[in-house]
Amino acid sequence: MLSHKLVVVSLFILGLALAPFSFGQFAKPAQTSHRVPGYYDPATGTFSPVRQSEAEVEAPAATTETGELIIKFTITVRSAIPKNGVVGCSASADAGDAASEHDERATGVATLVSAGTYTCSAIIHYSWLLATPTTDKISFTGSATIDYGYQVTATNGTAILVQPIEARGSSTSIPSINVPANGATTTVDVNITL
Questions:
Q1: Which of 43, 54, 70, 76 could form a disulfide with 187 if both were Cys (CB 3.0 to 4.6 A apart)?
Q2: What's the predicted TM-score (pTM) here?
Q3: Whole-angstrom Cα distance, residue 132 to residue 136?
Q4: pLDDT tens-digit map of 116-175
Q5: Phi, psi of 151 (to 5 degrees)
Q6: If DSSP codes are grouped into helix, strand and coil, which group holds residue 109?
Q7: Residues 47, 50, 55, 59: is their CA dihedral positive or negative?
Q8: What burial letters (b/e) apply to 77-106, b meaning 16+ CB within 10 Å?
């Protein structure tokens, strides 16, 4: 019985000795009057404060820039155009900055202007959210194709579908331009030979 009382008293004393450590988790953390902005790297455990000038600089407000880009192709065709063939063009325009990135695409069907010369326009109507439109650039890619126009008839004979398959194609580099004024229509001329 004495050993039982001794164990109970020992546990009571041990509980009293450890009690302050368990109540420490309820203490309020010390309040700092000054916070330092920066970046914590959990991989290395280091904190890098932001320089004062960086912390005070705010990102520019983004605005919506709208307009129309007409990528006008003049296509010189030296290849044979197959029966039911179509001459076409396609273009893409890429723009972006800290606010967002944009990738727009358009296609067009060419019109015969004179023997072997076609014109084709790929028209892109855009609405882009940009933070720095006065310094942003638009990058372009463009291509022209001659496509076969295969006619496919449904097995029950009730529908006819024309399926385009590229017979010849050529891509070209198009110089980049500054983002046009808001609401502007801008034409970019491209010459290409097929």
A1: 70
A2: 0.65
A3: 6
A4: 999 999 999 999 999 999 999 999 999 999 998 878 888 887 888 877 889 999 999 899
A5: -90, 130
A6: strand
A7: negative
A8: beeebeeebbbbbbbbbebbbebeebebeb
Q: Exposed, middle or buried by CB within 10 Å (0-12, 13-18, 19+), for 19?
A: exposed
CB 170 within 8 A of CB 143: yes
Burial of 67 (0-12, 13-18, 19+ CB in 10 A): middle
DSSP per-residue string spanning 137-179: EEEEEEEEEEEEEEEEE-TTSS-EEEEEEEEEEEEEEEEEEEP
Measured from the Cβ of residue 174, the count of other Cβ atoms closer than 10 Å reads 20
Tokens of 174: 């198009």
